[in-house]
Every structure is written in structure tokens, then in C-alpha cells.
Specification:
The protein is an alpha+beta fold. Helix content is 61%, strand content 9%. It contains 20 helices and 9 strands. The protein has helices spanning 16-25, 39-59, 81-116, 121-129, 141-148, 188-212, 216-238, 258-268, 299-305, 317-332, 335-351, 358-377, 384-387, 390-394, 407-432, 438-461, 469-483, 490-514, 516-537, 544-584, and strands at residues 2-9, 29-31, 133-140, 153-159, 162-169, 179-181, 240-242, 246-253, 271-275. Strands 1, 2, 7, 8 and 9 form a 5-stranded antiparallel beta sheet that branches. A 4-stranded antiparallel beta sheet has the order 4-5-3-6.
Length: 601
């Protein structure tokens, strides 16, 4: 990356043209000097919010043919037609929502008349004027008989399991200790007329929105234009103005694209200064990753976790993808589950119209990894019976088998994976310093990692270590001590490296052991699946009820197990890459992604 200072004249005037040219280049990652604040930005944000709301309203009517062919204005031919269309859509929607609210309230009143009958409110008022008061109650059926004995209480019907009771009294304050039902404020005829009238108005308003939806693209284009203006204004007011004549921006451009930006600057009369970022500025420099196309599959995971290598850090995407795929296969490790995951991804992909999305490629890859490991270990829905089918049994690797395999060798294999993974991290770090003696220190760490591997095998698994194991620590430690700090005086550098070496070795020991989680989690997945199988059909199926229960246990149990396995992938599969491996490769993921100011052409 190259650091670029860019200068443009007339900072207080409309800079739309110049900044649009810069945005169409789409090459300069701008680091704003200040938060972008201006009334025009506030207005644009408000308009964008309105446009998004208007488009969402019209989306509800997409694909529906209007029943009314009444002509409406072609807003595309009107001056500021998009604004007029937007206001019409929002106004009609507000009116429709108010009508819907009124219709709901009227519907409740209609329901009251439906349950209590066509009572004349005028008659009720007439009775009240003569000193006789009627009050309505809903009473539980079990209490109805006891209160019906009163002379001034009448049970007139039932509704929703409650008795409808009328209290007739000359005492206006007389009440029953039950839920009282108020009389409506309007007559049944008025309610019915208002309901019909509002329903007709609502249908008219919905028909209008249905017809307006044909012009939705006008709002979509307007939204795109406002978003473009917002980008321009945000960049404009994020720069610094000098003496009301020049505005300046600071940013970064890929080395091979600098000439493109400077040529455009010369053509448009912009000023610029190009320089290399200082070492103390590396934290501010965005990271532009250039990887083979096949590594794009890991982007969803990296983006989800917010993992971006720093500008001065190595790119670990390809190694991350390979081992994350491998770890997923081990952690889930059931060919049956892998088939289900693959089918679910395929169905989701089909439902989306087979749109090419990175996520689906990742899901397919991980599903195939799960299937392969499941076949190698003979695991199919945790059922040993299926694993013993002759054809499938021939595909197993005996020592790795989930049923009858050598658990000691499986655990040793997990430690071996860890040692290889960490070794790759040190080799990558060494390659970064290939022209420095620091690469020798990384070779020393590779020796220490393999010494730790043999030590872990001996201490955890009881496997005898080779006789040369001590020399791995001695030789590796010597290389680390001698070549880890070449910029310091020899004695000081050696003492500094030796002081940090014990703690780093202990951390490396724990990192290698950490890979046993692959075995533990994978084993727990198999055991849970086998347990659900035993719960469902362990004692056989003798009745229809037991058959239905077995199916429910199998479906719910395996669904739960697959969910837990997927969570384990996110927790353990990511952790081993992000902490153990990245730690040995000295990658802290402290970077920010290269995100240039870009406007569609």
C-alpha cells in the first residue's frame, strides 16, 4: 500500500463531480480526518430512510395484478417525480394503516353485538332515564346458579364458556363482583355502515398502492442516487479544509494502482503526495488480501469473526480454510449428518435460484469433509449396525474407526495434526523473514514444536519418545536464543530470548495438547448419537405408540446432536485456527479491511 494525500479546490462548493470521478475509480481507501457532519448529510439520511420505507411498502404488492385499471400519474415524466411518488406512497400507506386500525376497532364492536345481540342503545338510555339501570357481566358457569337466585339477575346466554348475565337495579351503584361488560358507544347500524365504508376506502387505498408498485423502479433509482450522494458528502466533509480554498483527504492505494489515481488527479487538476507508510502507521494501513479464488470460501467465517490480518502480518486464509475444513470433518464426523447438511445446503441454494454465493460453497465443502471423515471412521448416525455393513466396513480405516478403533492412535493422530498445524505457522512466519536471520529462529521453533509433540505423547499417552527428543529442545532453544533478536546487542538479545523461552515453551506445550479437543468433541458426537439410538430402539418396537415415540426420539435427538456439533465447529474449529495456529504464526488479526471509496459506474 502507498499513502496518498489528495487535494481538491473549492471545498465549500459542490464537489460532486470531482468526488464522483474519484469514487468511480474505486481505488482510494480514505481515512477521514474528522466525523462527517453537515445538514446535507442529515437530509440525505432522512430521505434514504423514507425511500427504503416506500420501497418496502410497494414490495408487499409485487407480483399482484391490479383489479382496477384506473389510470394514475406517470411520475417518471413529472419534475421531481420520485419525490412526488414517494410522498403519495407514504401518505396512502399512513391512511391505510389508520383505516385498518379503525376497522379493527369496529370489528370488536360488531363482535360485541354478535355476542350480546342487536341491543338498541336508545332503549337502554330510555330505561336508564326512568331510574332503572342495566349492567352486563360475564360470569363463570359454576357461579351462574348461585347469583341467578337473586331476583334482579338474569342469565341471558353463553359466550366462550362464560355465562352472560344482566343485573337490573334501581340503584345506580349496584354491582356484581365479576367482569363488567360496557355498552358500545354507537349503534349496530352505525357500526356496520362505518365498517363497510372504511373497508371500501381501504380497498381503494390498497388498489392505489398496487398500481403505484408498477413505478417502484423510480424509487429504487432515487435510492441509489441518494446513496451515491451520501457517499460523496460523507467523504467531502470527512476531509480537512484549508483557508476555504482547498480540501484534503488522507488514504491508501494499492501499489500497482497508484498511477491510475495520479493520472486521474493530473487530468482533473487535483494535487497529491504519494509516500510509503511509516512503520508506526502500519496499524492504520488497510489490508488488501490477494488470494486464489478457492480460498474465498473461508471469507464468511473470517468476516463473521471479524478476522483481518494486520498490514504487516501474513495472510493465513488458505491455511485457515484447509484446517477449518479438516477440523469440521473430525468434530462432526458422521457421514449421515454430512449428507443431511449437504442436502439442506442444496435445498437452500435451490430456493435462492442457485445464485452463486460463497456461503453455499463453504457449506458444500464442509459437508463433504464431514462425510469423508464419517466414512473413514465408519460413523453413520452413530449406528454400529450400519458401520458393520461389509461394503461400508471396507472403506473404514481400522485404527480410526469409531467402533472398535484404537483410541490411543486416534489421540496421537490429533496431536500430530496439532504439531503439523503449528509447524506451518512457524514456516510461514519464517518465510516472511526469508532474507533475515529471524528465519533461523523459526526453524528453532519448528524443532521445539516437534519436541513438544513427542513429549506430549509420552506424558499423556505413555508412548515412548525417540532418543533424539532432548536434542530437539537443545538445538531449537539455541537457535531461538541466538537469532530471535538480531537488532539488539548479541548478549542482550540472547538473554532476552532465554528469559522468554521457558514461558513460550510451556505455552507451546499447552497448544499441542489443545488439539485433543478434536478427539473429545468428535467422540462425544458419536456417543450422543449412539445413545439416542439406544433410547429409541434399544428394546425394540412392539407397538404403534412405541414406534411413534422412537421416531420422535430419533428425529429430535439427532437434530439436537447436529446442532451441538455445528456449535462445536464454530467454537473449537475456529479457536484452533485463531488462537493456537495464529499465535505461532504471530498473527493478531489487528488489521482493517481495504474498503475503497467506490461508486458504481
Amino acid at each position: 500500500m502507498k499513502k496518498l494525500l489528495l487535494f481538491m479546490a473549492h471545498p465549500t462548493n459542490d464537489m460532486d463531480d470531482d468526488l464522483t470521478v474519484l469514487g468511480k475509480l474505486g481505488l482510494m481507501h480514505i481515512s477521514p480526518f474528522q466525523p462527517a457532519k453537515d445538514e446535507s448529510i442529515e437530509r440525505l439520511n432522512k430521505r434514504i430512510e423514507q425511500l427504503e420505507k416506500g420501497i418496502a411498502i410497494l414490495d408487499e404488492y409485487e407480483g399482484v395484478e391490479p383489479s382496477d385499471s384506473v389510470g394514475i400519474i406517470d411520475y417518471a415524466k413529472e419534475e421531481r417525480g420520485e419525490v412526488a411518488l414517494l410522498e403519495k406512497v407514504l401518505e396512502t400507506d399512513r391512511h391505510n394503516r389508520e383505516l385498518q386500525k379503525q376497522i379493527a376497532e369496529l370489528s370488536q364492536v360488531q363482535q360485541w353485538y354478535s355476542s350480546w345481540g342487536n341491543i338498541s342503545l336508545d332503549d337502554i338510555q330510555s330505561i336508564n332515564s326512568k331510574g332503572i339501570y342495566l349492567k352486563l357481566y360475564e360470569v363463570p358457569e359454576k357461579d351462574a346458579k348461585s347469583i341467578q337466585a337473586k331476583a334482579n339477575v338474569q342469565v341471558i346466554g353463553q359466550f366462550k364458556g362464560l355465562c352472560q348475565v344482566v343485573l337490573i337495579s334501581e340503584d345506580k351503584e349496584a354491582t356484581l363482583n365479576y367482569h363488567q361488560i360496557d355498552f358500545p358507544g354507537v349503534s349496530k347500524q352505525e357500526v356496520d355502515e362505518a365498517f363497510a365504508k372504511n373497508t371500501e376506502k381501504l380497498a381503494t387505498g390498497q388498489q392505489l398502492l398496487l398500481q403505484l408498485s408498477a413505478q417502484k423502479n423510480l424509487l429504487i433509482d432515487a435510492l441509489e442516487e441518494r446513496n451515491r450522494r451520501l457517499k460523496v458528502r460523507t467523504v467531502q466533509y470527512g476531509g480537512v479544509a484549508f483557508h476555504g480554498k482547498v480540501r484534503c483527504w488522507e488514504g491508501y492505494v494499492p501499489v500497482d494502482k497508484v498511477s491510475t489515481v495520479t493520472d486521474a488527479a493530473d487530468e482533473n487538476g487535483w494535487g497529491y503526495m504519494v509516500s510509503d507508510p511509516r512503520h508506526d502507521e502500519f496499524d492504520l494501513v488497510p489490508t488488501l488480501l490477494k488470494n486464489p479464488k478457492w480460498t474465498d470460501k473461508i471469507k464468511p467465517v473470517m468476516n463473521f469473526m471479524g478476522l483481518v490480518p494486520g498490514y504487516d502480518e501474513i495472510d493465513v486464509s488458505h491455511v485457515f480454510l484447509i484446517f477449518f475444513t479438516f477440523f469440521t470433518g473430525i468434530l462432526v464426523g458422521d457421514a449421515g449428518y454430512g449428507i443431511i447438511f449437504f442436502v439442506l445446503a442444496l435445498l437452500a441454494h435451490w430456493k435462492s435460484g442457485f445464485v452463486k454465493k460463497i456461503e453455499f460453497g463453504l457449506f458444500y465443502t464442509l459437508s463433504v469433509s464431514v462425510m469423508i471423515w464419517g466414512v473413514l471412521t465408519g460413523t453413520y448416525f452413530g449406528a454400529e449396525t450400519i458401520a458393520n455393513i461389509p461394503f461400508l466396513k471396507q472403506l473404514q480405516v481400522g485404527q480410526l474407526a469409531s467402533f472398535g478403533g484404537d483410541n490411543l492412535r486416534i489421540q496421537q493422530f490429533m496431536f500430530l495434526i496439532g504439531a503439523v498445524h503449528l509447524t506451518i505457522g512457524h514456516i510461514q512466519k519464517g518465510w516472511k523473514y526469508i532474507n533475515s536471520v529471524l528465519v533461523i529462529a523459526q526453524l528453532g521453533w519448528v524443532a521445539i514444536v516437534w519436541g513438544l509433540y513427542f513429549l506430549v505423547n509420552k506424558m499423556v499417552l505413555g508412548i515412548e519418545a525417540p532418543e533424539f527428543m532432548p536434542w530437539l529442545f537443545i538445538g531449537g532453544g539455541a537457535l531461538v536464543a541466538l537469532f530471535s533478536s538480531p537488532s539488539q546487542p548479541i548478549v542482550k538479545g540472547i538473554l532476552s530470548s532465554l528469559g522468554n523461552l521457558p514461558l513460550n515453551v510451556i505455552n507451546g506445550f499447552s497448544d499441542v495438547i489443545s488439539y485433543i479437543r478434536l478427539y473429545a468433541v468428535g467422540l462425544s458426537t458419536v456417543l450422543m448419537a449412539s445413545s439416542f439410538n439406544d433410547m429409541a430402539i434399544g428394546e425394540g418396537i412392539t407397538t404403534i405408540a412405541s414406534g411413534v415415540g422412537a421416531v420422535l426420539v430419533l428425529i429430535l435427538g439427532h437434530a439436537l446432536n447436529m446442532t451441538l456439533a455445528a456449535m462445536a465447529v464454530l467454537v473449537h474449529g475456529v479457536r484452533l485456527n485463531m488462537l493456537e495456529y495464529a499465535g505461532h504464526a504471530s498473527v493478531e488479526f489487528s488489521g482493517s479491511e481495504y474498503n475503497p471509496f467506490k461508486i458504481k459506474k
